[in-house]
Design brief:
The chain contains 32 helices and 26 strands. With 845 residues, the chain is α+β, with helices and mostly antiparallel strands. It has five domains: 188 residues, Uracil-DNA Glycosylase, subunit E (3-Layer(aba) Sandwich), CATH 3.40.470; 203 residues, Ribonuclease H-like superfamily/Ribonuclease H (Nucleotidyltransferase, domain 5); 115 residues, Taq DNA Polymerase, Chain T, domain 4 (Up-down Bundle); 144 residues, Alpha-Beta Plaits (2-Layer Sandwich); 151 residues, no CATH class. A six-stranded mixed β-sheet has the order 1-3-2-4-6-5. Strands 7-10-9-8-11-12 form a six-stranded mixed β-sheet, with helices on both faces. Helix 4 crosses helix 5, helix 11 packs parallel to helix 16 and helix 16 packs across helix 30. The longest helix has 28 residues.
Length: 845
């Protein structure tokens, strides 16, 4: 029997030599240890010193263990690697490092099992990375399995395995480092301290009609929260799960792989009982990503759910906005249950559909378990009022917006996209592709060369190999095309290529997005609103196609698509949009006195132009001499039409008003002159001059940025005007600096606009059955109202949009620009026919 590390090393070397393996770094520590720490492969320092986990990765590991698992002493641990030579993982490796093939890896894994069999007191194994998890547990995918605690057998000995990242990976990924520390504190520590108990969930599957009804009633009678979850097969509801306990659930499957499981009457009874449960005033329903489930049940099954009590995804987002919010991650953070999300698809290959129903039950019970911890944490951080009164209150209204959708003019849509109709969008795309190829032929003198403008590889070959263009790196995106266009060595012919590329891509993208965006059976286009959608600005919504596959992002609709969207019969569109919303928040946040005075004057006056005022200050000219328009007319005809004097030297050039406006839109968030030039089309010299003037005029900006950054560095958290937090978990980088600076204004405006949705819908003067908010456009809202109540609904929207926000102890009122659609020649109200209204027009009659 092996009794010392030295003896084990000698015996292992013999075994490795017989298997044709070269061991460059042997095991370390003590054979008497109760814990073995198993990494993937040694790094350069480990090979040099002949001991595992003594380099940079080891420093991360031992520091985390000292901090979060103080009962574990380094001298008492057994340490080893699966592969005992330095290998290539493909990132920053030297040429003499080779990747591990399947046969070699299998040989190392077999030797590891032999090696661990010599540890007589082994109870726990800490598995660091893919190789270790696969060698001990036979599992693949450390991103999935990290945070899992599982039973394992090594050397005929039953042990408990804790899975986490390879600390070498954490050195490259700061967020992985945070998660690694969580695993040390929440998984390894309770295991080695004897506090670990396996987490098991029992699921009642295939219940009888009576059992299903009784369990639903049991959930409805519960005074505690109840979790629910649905699963979908072939775009239809396959099952509905419920859990009144974090360890027990029921999955009510409506059909199996071959037949319906209930008679028509029985299924009707179950659905009616579910409707009572979901609508009951006393039920506290918990979901994970409940916006999907509730919209699906309403749209697909005609089961309407009342406002949810809690949503684990949204609660976790409030606490940790920059972390993942999927249930798999949340369960591993808040429970001791191991990874199980693979079971959602594995049932198709192993075990049959009953395993899918069991998986559904686990989702419900574990959602309930995680929710209890999330609510406790929200209360500890004093975020519970914000969460319940704003985030959860909003969700049900977003579900209503999703299900409501907007009608599409199907005939117009077909005509715009039909490849057989001349002069439509499809024809425009073909024409612009031909213009691009003509420009390519002229620039390259290759008449048989037809590169695909949507292929990055082919475009890189065109730009950098054939046209010898100079940009920043070899990207083919819009930003680099702008840089190439401005480079002095770019010829006129090459610029024409770039111009035709931009023209084609704009139309081709529009065509591909809206040709593939499928309206639902009722001719309505819908989108799924995501409350966790904008990571850098929590509080701002994002949108995408629905989870049943129809619709599209409806927040960034190009102008040419808006005519496809029409109001319901006898209805019209209404809209509000916050005037200079983010800039106003910045002014109040950083106490920019000049801005505050100008914005307030504009709000009260109604005709005073803040952009002209800023331009007057930046360029030191009287306000009355600043143009009221953004660009000088291109020709005398345009000048006469707009009532502007024509000057051939100024034709088409931006005015100082435009320059000031673009500065206010871009420079508040640390944008530099080169980026200002690219995003606005201004010459770099003009952008640089404007940059200097702008910051000289508003030194409060840089002082405010510095104060926010110092606040985050010291407290690691910053709050917006409504109490939403942004937590900086990783070291501050240039990218996160921009996010920190932009968070307060963007997030505050996002939450402010979202607040208007539920405030308006719940207002007693809102025409409840004749109007609804249909779209969120980031800084604004679009509604649909019966013509008879359009102004009434608009007044309610304006009232709540102009509710003061308290910023730094001062009230900020963001004026709401507003409008109502007018009928086109055929009497149809379209999104494209919305006309702005003056304030007196809204509040008269």
């Amino acid at each position: 029997m092996t009794t010392t590390i030295a003896e084990l090393r000698d015996r292992f070397a013999e075994q490795a030599q017989q298997a044709g393996l070269v061991a460059e770094c042997m095991m370390g520590g003590t054979l008497a240890s109760s814990i073995a720490i198993i990494a993937e492969a040694p790094g350069r320092n480990e090979v040099a010193q002949g001991a595992p986990l003594v380099g940079g990765a080891g420093n991360i590991l031992w520091k985390s263990i000292r901090t979060y698992c103080p009962s574990i002493k380094r001298a008492d641990c057994y340490t080893t690697n699966v592969v005992k030579r330095q290998v290539s993982f493909g990132v920053g490796d030297s040429a003499n490092q080779k990747p591990v093939g399947k046969q070699e890896l299998a040989a190392w894994q077999q030797l590891l099992q032999w090696e661990l069999g010599h540890l007589p007191n082994l109870k726990y194994v800490l598995l660091l990375g893919n190789y270790a998890v696969e060698a001990v547990l036979g599992r693949k995918g450390i991103t999935n399995w990290r945070g899992s605690v599982l039973p394992a057998t090594v050397g005929n000995r039953d042990v408990v395995a804790v899975c986490t990242f390879n600390p070498a990976f954490c050195a490259r990924d700061p967020m992985a480092h945070i998660v690694f520390d969580m695993d040390m504190a929440d998984k390894l520590r309770p295991v080695v301290e004897g506090r670990y108990e396996p987490y098991n969930v029992s699921t009642i599957i295939n219940p009888t009609h009576r059992q299903a009804i009784d369990y639903i009633r049991h959930c409805q009678a519960s005074r505690d929260p109840v979790a629910s979850d649905i699963e979908v097969i072939a775009n239809e509801t396959a099952c509905i799960g419920l859990a009144a306990s974090p360890t027990e659930a029921m999955c009510i499957a409506l059909r199996n792989e071959e037949d319906n499981l209930y008679s028509v009457q029985e299924e009707t009874d179950i659905r009616r009982q579910l409707q009572r449960l979901y609508a009951a005033p006393t039920t506290r329903m918990v979901w994970q990503n409940g916006g999907f489930d509730m919209a699906w049940l309403w749209f697909k099954d005609r089961i309407r759910c009342k406002q949810a009590y809690s949503d684990t995804m949204l609660g976790h987002h409030v606490l940790y906005p920059t972390m993942p919010h999927d249930l798999g991650f949340i369960v591993k953070q808040y429970t001791m249950h191991p990874y199980y999300k693979n079971e959602k698809d594995d049932w198709r290959h192993t075990g049959g559909v009953d395993n899918f129903w069991i998986y559904n039950g686990k989702d419900c019970a574990l959602t309930l378990a995680a929710n209890a911890s999330i609510i406790d944490e929200l209360r500890e951080q004093k975020l519970d009022a914000f969460y319940f009164n704003h985030v959860m209150r909003l969700q049900a209204h977003l579900v209503w917006m999703t299900v409501g959708g907007i009608l599409n003019d199907m005939e117009l849509r077909e005509n715009m996209l039909n490849e057989n109709i001349t002069g439509n969008l499809y024809d425009d795309v073909k024409r612009k592709l031909a213009e691009f190829h003509t420009a390519v032929h002229e620039a390259t003198q290759m008449l048989d060369y037809f590169p695909n403008p949507q292929s990055p590889k082919q475009m890189a070959d065109l730009y950098f190999t054939r046209l010898k263009l100079v940009g920043r790196g070899v990207s083919t995106d819009y930003t680099n095309r702008a840089l190439m266009r401005k480079h002095p060595r770019t010829t006129a012919a090459a610029r024409k290529v770039l111009d035709t590329v931009d023209a084609y891509i704009e139309d081709a993208k529009f065509f591909s997005v809206y040709a593939s965006a499928r309206p639902d059976y009722d001719c309505r286009m819908r989108c799924d609103y995501r409350q966790t959608g904008v990571q850098s600005a929590p509080g701002r919504l994002s949108s995408a196609q629905t989870l049943w596959g129809s619709g599209a992002n409806l927040q960034n609709i190009p102008d040419r698509a808006k005519e496809m969207f029409i109001a319901d019969p006898d209805c019209c569109f209404i809209y509000i949009d916050g005037s200079q919303a983010e800039a106003r928040v910045v002014g109040w946040r950083y106490n920019i006195a000049t801005w505050i005075e100008q914005f307030e004057r504009a709000r009260r006056d109604g005709s005073y132009d803040c952009h002209r005022a800023l331009a007057a200050d930046m360029f030191d000219v009287p306000y009355d001499q600043v143009p009221t328009f953004d660009r000088y007319p291109l020709d005398e005809v345009a000048a006469r039409r707009d009532g502007i004097a024509f000057n051939v030297e100024q034709a088409g050039k931006p005015t100082i008003r435009y320059i000031a406006k673009r500065c206010r839109h871009g420079l508040n968030y640390r944008m530099m002159p080169d980026r200002l030039s690219l995003t606005t089309g201004l010459p770099l010299s003009t952008a640089s001059e404007a940059f200097v003037k702008y910051h000289k005029l508003t030194p409060e900006l840089k002082l405010g940025w510095q104060a926010d950054l110092e606040r985050v560095k010291t407290k690691r958290v910053i709050y917006n005007a409504y109490g939403r937090q942004y937590v900086q978990l990783i070291p501050i980088t240039e990218e996160s600096t921009e996010a920190i600076v932009a968070f307060y204004p963007q997030s505050t405006v996002g939450d402010h606009v979202c607040r208007v949705i539920y405030k308006a819908h719940d207002d007693p003067t809102w025409p409840k059955y004749k109007a609804r908010i249909a779209l969120n456009t980031h800084d604004g809202l679009i509604g649909i109202a019966h013509k008879s109540v359009a102004k009434q609904a608009l007044r309610v929207l304006v009232k709540h949009a102009e509710t003061p926000i308290i910023i730094e102890g001062r009230e900020l009122v963001i004026p709401a620009e507003c409008g109502i659609s007018v009928p086109d020649a055929a009497g149809v109200h379209r999104w494209s026919t919305i006309k702005k209204l003056k304030r007196q027009e809204v509040f008269s009659g």
